[in-house]
Amino acid sequence: MEPKVAALIAAGFCMGIGSIGPAIAIGNLVGKALEGIARQPEASGQINTAMFIGIAFAEAISLYALVVAFLLIFVA
After folding, report:
1. In this structure, how many other beta carbons lie within 10 angstroms of the beta carbon of residue 69?
2. How far apart are CA 51 and CA 40, in angstroms?
3. What is the distance between the alpha carbons of residues 58 and 18, in angstroms, rounded to a whole number?
């Protein structure tokens, strides 16, 4: 197998596996935030703020995977 083909396959796996964790984390985070808002509607502002910060941190992980995939595609 040529190195470029291996790098492209590795980039695909990198994005696939690197996106599973953040997707599960964001799904759980939003679900729990909605449960919290349903239980205490008056705290929705604080819950939303914490939820968006958590989403940003979880999404950063998939962006790191994207950077690694781009490095594999264009540098290797």
Report:
1. 20
2. 15
3. 11
User: Which of these, 3, 7, 6, lies nearest to 73 by C-alpha position?
Assistant: 7
Cα separation, 43 vs 56, in Å, equals 20
Assess whether pLDDT exceeds 90 at residue 76: no
What is 1-27 written as a DSSP string?
Answer: --HHHHHHHHHHHHHHHHHHHHHHHHH
**Can you tell me the distance from the alpha carbon of 49 to that of 56, in angstroms, rounded to the nearest whole number?**
11
What domains can you pick out in the chain, each with its CATH number? 3-74 (1.20.20.10)
Indicate the length of the chain as a whole number: 76
* Dist CA 31 CA 55 (whole Å): 12
pTM, to two decimals: 0.81
